[in-house]
Each structure stands twice: as C-alpha cells, then as structure tokens.
Amino acid sequence: MKLAQTVTVKAPRDKVWGIVLDVPAAARCVPGVASVRPAGSDRYQGTLAVQIGPVRLVLDGDIAITARDEKAGTASFRADAKDSRVGGAIKATVDLALADRSGATDIKIATDLQVLGRLGEFGQPVIKRKADQMMGDFAECLARAVAGR
Question: What confidence tens digit (pLDDT) does each residue in 111-140 have?
C-alpha cells in the first residue's frame, strides 16, 4: 500500500532536518511511540502502541536510516515491526523530502507499507485514515519541538 502525505512545519528547513534525523527526538512526536533506543549506527529499536478500530496493537521492531542527503533535504528509512499478540507485521520504507516554503518547511512523506498477517484484515481505507491522523499529529508536535530548540 502506498501512502503519501505532505505536512507543513512552521520552522526553517535546517531546524526541521535536525530533528527529523534525530530519530529518538522525532519519534517522540509520533503518537503511540512507547520507546525508541539506539541499536547501532543509524539503527534503532522501538515500540509503537496504536489503536485501529477496536483492536489495540503493540508493534515491536527496528528502524534504520538507509539514506540521507542534507543538501537535497531527502532521507529514507526502513521499518520492520510485528505484533505477536494479534499475529501480524508491517514492513515499510519511508522517503522524506524537505522543501523551503517562505519561513516554513514542507515535508513530503512517501510510504510503501506492507501489512502482513492478520493486521492486513483491517483494510486499506482504515489503515490510511489512521496514518493520515498520525501524520497530522506528528506535524503539529514536530512544529512545537522545533520551536523549543
């Protein structure tokens, strides 16, 4: 499933870049993230608790920065996580592109998401709505975090 969002953060691109590439700091802005800890160079382990419809998921997994180009304002991430209780997993590649926008920064987020096992039974519309809601919350929190730096 392909997801695409664009969020605007009212801060200069260099400040947004700094927090987006600080994975533990950026993760604090993702609703439901319980923990993110370093696991090597550009690698992290984390836990995300999320409610989709009547089901509460606890996804444990790995996040890796797979590419970054500060000058171009682009970065790529890979995330793999599973919920052993419900029986399913996600695999995602996320590409970010930051662009200046008169005192603000647009963040284009392109996600290629695979939902495996029983998690796939939720259906794409439900998952997309939840992803859009989470990205909106992420952008608002990111703006506050950048303003506080």
Answer: 898 888 877 777 777 777 888 888 778 878
**Which 8-state DSSP code applies to residue 30?**
S
Phi, psi of 46, deg, nearest 5: -155, 175
Domain that holds residue 52: 2-147
Overall domain count for the chain: 1
- Quickly count: other Cβ atoms within 10 Å of residue 143's Cβ: 19
Taking the CA atoms of 85, 86, 91 and 97 in sequence, report the sign of the dihedral they define.
negative
CB atoms within 10 A of CB 36: 19
pTM for the model: 0.86
The pLDDT tens digits for 55-105 are 788 999 999 999 999 999 999 999 999 998 888 888 999 999 999 988 899
Q: What is the CATH number of the domain that holds 76?
A: 3.30.530.20
